[in-house]
Specification:
Chain B: This is Dipeptide/oligopeptide/nickel ABC transporter ATP-binding protein. The complex is a heterodimer of chains A (385) and B (335). By secondary structure, chain A is of the alpha/beta class. Helices cover 30% and strands 18% of the residues of chain A. The longest helix of chain A has 18 residues, at 209-226. In chain B, the strands form two sheets. An eight-stranded mixed β-sheet of chain B has the order 6-7-8-3-9-10-12-11, sandwiched between helices. A four-stranded antiparallel β-sheet of chain B has the order 2-1-4-5. Classes of the chains: A alpha/beta (385), B alpha/beta (335).
């Protein structure tokens, strides 16, 4: 079953909107008992087919732990304490399987073949004493036992070409490749079994901007051709806004806001999201003094009561210290807005500050122009109608 | 001395002339010279921030290391107030030129308190005498970087990344330097606290008249924070000008590429950078070093382009800026 990538017509790709991965109430901790550090708390997420779902957060926000928990790769002392992760394969409509209750054999069948991970540090994720070709062949040898040797070799060549590496580099060892090429090899490894879902944990963080841009282009092109879904984890929100369809923002282990990316960029509703967006100096316009977010990122060992962000928040209210805001549709937004925010400013008891309010309808059609992705544009259409 | 005021237009405090650093690689009979930095003329002016922007392999960190005299230049001169730095006593030189490193997790000693880190340079550079004097000066330093005085008793691991970098800046300030070299001071920090560090450095520039060299890969932060921006590629300066000129009207194709590749949520169209394949590591060492990646490369690019003035304060080293009739005849004309 060596399906060449180019042979899959884009039109048969399942329409975006159909969920392929559903995370419900997922919690993960490091350690047990009262001293446990709760790195992921009660996270709900839906990944749709063909979608790029971005997860942004600072160090200690739990974003990487979330990726490891979803794939059941969390190692002790990390433990998943609650929740379910339902994978809905394209070939089994209706039937989903909970990865958290799956046995080793079931997991083995799904990992890499259906759900692949591209790890952060390509230097450390590749084996330094094996050639790139050998490492790619090993994947096929383990997961595609029925493939002939020649077919495997052909597939490896095809795959490295697809990520923009000349097959002449296949005999190279990882240290002979540049950082960008190693990261491309990692992406080739992730995609070689044609998974339905690819989790990428800071895949471009250590790379130069030009290389980063090339790799992002490559990911977008491959998604068009192969139709996989991506969970893209990064601290760089400015990058996500360009490539993701939907963005979820994490703070202190919880989701604090989720929205289509153009909406998140033009009208953030959570003070933390707004602060993050204001932390990236712009390449255009007047030079204005920016302040970032006061204070330090939260220490998961000492999370404030109520809303974890309140100690850095310019809009703190007495209620924020006692009650934790739930992640919910902001009061006043139509359900079609497809966004959630965990902030008491949006519970309808008081008008939210203008900077975090829902923009007037006249201003909203502008959102659509910000997006380049078709999924995003369709959703913007829906919002307007 | 000269009447050094601060701000743009003042007399430079630290200057480099034709500064170069070449490394020779030996192995298996092959000898190769890596020209990490070539022909660098740089002037750091009191009360201004000069950003050096480039990718990995551009030589930007080597520049900072030569300026703080951790790396000996292969050729060229560094002058501090007109005096040849190579002939100056190292301690006297470093009293005026201090450095802040990229990684605040590695640049502080984990077994010593923050107070110890600050007291050492105060004593070494004779800025405080042993005794009650030191504790007071340590407190002052912490205050200048907006850390609570109680941080003096803490160990590095008790601090967040941003707090550590503030402590590292306080340590650099202990000798009361006039030049501060900051090598990627925010790239290891969380996004939300980066601006706090840049704003702090900006205040030190304004209140103390520090000449700051800001080495970075992030051209947007240079636009935000720097007065002048110098763009380096494979060891050579390709463009320099005021920070706004360089980012808003980039004149060199490499600067244009850097800007088009930077994350930018306001971008409407997707830019195609697929042509610009290889990195600085394999760049040619003669002529224009960017020509292999340049979409406008011509035969004449085999020769070193001159620095052409775009505006009085803005220059770019590119043959495209030279009138065709003024370009030297290249050996082989393109068909």
């Amino acid at each position: 079953m060596t399906i060449s990538a180019g042979s899959i017509p884009v039109t048969t790709r399942p329409r975006a909107g159909d969920p392929v991965l559903e995370v419900r109430g997922l919690s993960a901790s490091y350690g047990l008992g009262p001293d446990a550090v709760r790195a992921v708390v009660d996270v709900d997420l839906t990944l749709r087919r063909g979608e790029i779902l971005g997860i942004a957060g600072e160090s200690g926000s739990g974003k990487s732990t979330l990726a490891y928990a979803i794939t059941r790769l969390l190692r002790p002392p990390g433990v998943i304490t609650a929740g379910e992760v339902v994978f809905r394969p394209a070939d089994r409509p209706g039937g989903g399987m909970d990865l958290l209750s799956a046995g080793p054999a079931e997991l083995r069948a799904i990992r890499w073949s259906e759900i692949a991970v591209v790890f952060q540090s390509a230097m450390h994720a590749l084996n330094p004493v094996l050639t790139v070709e050998r490492q790619l062949l090993d994947v096929l040898a383990a997961h595609r036992r029925s493939m002939s040797r020649q077919a495997r070799q052909a597939r490896v060549r095809e795959m490295v070409e697809m990520v923009g590496i000349s097959p002449s580099r296949l005999k190279s060892y990882p240290h002979e490749l540049s950082g960008g090429m190693r990261q491309r090899v990692m992406i080739a490894m992730g995609l070689i079994l044609e998974p339905q879902i690819v989790l990428m944990d800071e895949p471009t963080t250590a790379l130069d901007v030009v290389t980063q841009r090339q790799i992002l282009q490559q990911i977008l092109e491959l998604r068009e051709r192969l139709g996989f879904s991506v969970v893209f984890i990064t601290h760089d929100l400015s990058l996500l806004i360009e490539i993701a369809d939907t963005i979820a923002i994490m703070y202190a282990g919880r989701l604090v806001e989720r929205a289509p990316s153009a909406f998140l960029f033009h009208a953030p509703r959570h003070p933390y999201t707004r602060g993050l967006l204001a932390s990236f100096p712009s390449l255009h316009g007047d030079r204005e003094k920016l302040v970032g977010i006061p204070g330090s990122p939260v220490d998961l060992r000492h999370v404030p009561s109520g809303c974890a962000f309140r100690t850095r928040c310019p809009h703190e209210m007495p209620r924020c210290a006692t009650d934790r805001p739930p992640l919910a549709l902001p009061v006043g937004d139509p359900p079609s807005a497809d966004r959630e925010v965990a902030c008491w400013l949006h519970d309808g008891r008081q008008p939210p500050p203008p900077s975090l309010a829902r923009p007037a309808p006249a201003a909203r059609p502008e959102y659509a122009t910000a997006g380049t992705s078709t999924i995003r544009d369709t959703r913007a259409e829906q919002e307007r109608s | 001395m000269t009447s050094t005021t601060s701000g743009p237009g003042a007399e430079p405090v630290l200057r480099t002339t034709s500064l170069a650093k070449h490394y020779t690689l030996r192995g298996r009979g092959r000898r190769r010279t890596v020209r990490a930095v070539d022909d660098l003329d740089l002037a750091l002016v009191p009360g201004t921030v000069t950003a050096v922007v480039g990718e990995s392999g551009s030589g930007k960190s080597t520049v900072a290391k030569m300026l703080v005299r951790l790396v000996r230049p292969s050729s060229g001169r560094i002058t501090l107030d007109g005096r040849d730095a190579g002939r100056m006593n190292l301690r006297a030189y470093r009293k005026d030129v201090q450095m802040v490193f990229q990684d605040p997790f590695a640049s502080l000693n984990s077994v010593h308190t923050i107070g110890y880190h600050l007291a050492r340079p105060l004593l070494n550079f004779g800025r405080a005498r042993r005794g009650a004097d030191v504790a007071g000066k340590v407190r002052d330093l912490l205050q200048r970087v907006k850390l609570d005085p109680q941080f003096a008793d803490k160990l590095p691991h008790e601090l967040s990344g941003g707090q550590r970098q503030r402590a590292a800046i306080a340590r650099a300030l202990a000798s009361e330097p006039r030049v501060l070299l900051a090598d990627e001071p925010i790239s290891m920090l969380d996004v939300s606290i980066r601006l706090g560090i840049l704003n702090l450095l900006g205040e030190l520039r304004d209140t103390d008249g520090l000449a700051i060299l800001y080495v970075t890969h992030d051209i947007a932060s240079a636009r935000y924070f720097a007065d002048r921006t110098v763009v380096m590629y494979a060891g050579k300066v390709v463009e320099s000008g005021t920070a706004l000129e360089v980012t808003d009207q980039p004149a060199h194709p490499y600067t244009q590429l850097l800007i088009s590749a930077a994350p930018d949520p306001q971008r409407i169209e997707i830019v195609d950078v697929s042509r610009a394949s290889s990195g600085a590591a394999s760049a040619p060492t003669d002529g224009c070093r960017f020509r292999d990646r340049c979409p406008f490369a011509m035969d004449v690019c085999r020769q070193q382009p001159p620095d052409v003035a775009v505006t009085p304060s803005h220059t770019a080293a590119c043959w495209l800026r030279v009138d065709e009739s003024q370009r030297p005849a290249s050996g082989r004309e393109a068909a």
